[in-house]
Predict the 3D structure of the following.
Amino acid sequence: MHAGVDPKGMAALSGGHLATDLAQGSLPALLPFLSDRFDLSYTMAGALVLAATISSSIIQPAFGVWSDARGALWLLPGGVALAGLGMAFASVAPSYALVLVGVLASGVGVAAYHPEGSKFASYVSGRRRASGMSLFSVGGNIGFALGPLVASFFVITLGLGLDGGALIALPGLAVAAILFVSLRHLAAFAPRREVAAEAPPTRTQWRGTTLLLLIVGLRSLAHMGLFTFIPLFEISRGHGAGYGTRVLALFLFAGALGTLLGGPLADRLGRRRVLLGSFLVSPPLIAVYVLAGGAVGVVALFLTGMAVIGTFSVSLVMSQEYMPGRVGMASGLSIGLAIGLGGIAALSLGAIADAVDLETAVLVTALGPAACILLTLLLPSSTVRRPSRPAAASV
C-alpha cells in the first residue's frame, strides 16, 4: 500500500463528489420557488427531500455490493451525470409529480456514485485513510455548499426563474467527462485479485457496525434537518430567500472546514474522540442558533456545521474499518443510511412544522446528536491490521 494520498486520483474523485452533491445541495434553494409554483405545505416540501434521499439510500448498499463483487468504475461518471440531469429536470417540471420524478432520478445518480467513489478514495489514500477520506468528503461538503448558491445564481441572479435550474446539469456533465478520462488512472489503484486473495482474512465487527449506523442515522436528523429547513426558517424570520440561501451555504461551508480538520484529528487523536467531541457541542449550538438568532445565532450555526458535518468522513472510514472485506458495501450503508434517514427526518420535521411551528421543528434537530453521545461511548475500536505487502495493482 502506498503511504500518501495520490493527488491526481483524489482530485478527480473529490471533484466528482463535489458535482454530485452540488446537484443534491441545490434542492433546498429551489424549495421556496417550487413551494410558490405548486403551493406546497412544509410537509410536501419535506417530501421532495425525502424523495431525493430515499431513492439513493435504498439502492446505495446494492451499488456497494455490486462494486465489491464486480467493480463498476463506469458508475463514477454515470452517477455524476444523472445526479445533475435529474435535478435540472425537476426544476423545469410542469407538475409536482414530475418534480418528484426528477428528484428521484437525481437520487439514483447520487446512489451510483458514492460507494464506488468512496471505495477508490480509500484506495488512493494509502495509509492516511482518515486524512484522505476527509479530502474526498470535503468535495461533497463544498458541493452541498455551492449547490444553493449555484441554484440561486441561475434562478435569481440571472433572472431566469425556476427555468434557470436547468443549468444545474452543466457542472455534472463537465465533471463526468473529466472522470471518464481519469478512469484508467484510478483503475491502477484497485488491488490485484491475487493480492486480495493472499491477504489475511478479515471479519466484520457487527456490533461496531450496528452502533455506528445508529449514530449516522441520528446525526442525519441534525444534518439533513438543518439542510432542508434553514432557508425556510430564515424566511419565516422575515428575511429574504437570498439571505436564507447564504446562511445555508455558510452552514455547509463550515462543514467543509470541519471535514478538513476532522480527518487529520481522527488520525492523530482517534476516531471515537473526534465523534464524541462533535456530539457534545452540537445540541447547545443548535439551541443558540434557533433561540438567539442574529449574528450570535449565525456564528452558532457555523460552529454547528463544523461539528455535525465535519465528522462525516470519520464515520465513513470507521464503517470501512468495521467491514474491511466489504468496503463498497460499508460505504453504501454508511452514506445511504445517513441520506435516507435524513430524508425521513426532513419529512417528520415538516409535519412538526405544520402541526406546531417551524422554530420547534428546527430545535428538534438537536435531539439527534444528543442521542449519539451515549452510543459513541459504546463504540468498539475500529482499527484493523492491514496486509504488510503492497496492494497497488495494474489496470
The two ends are 16 Å apart (CA to CA). DSSP finds 16 helices and no strands in the chain. The chain has one domain: 7-377. Residues 206-236 form the longest helix (31 residues).
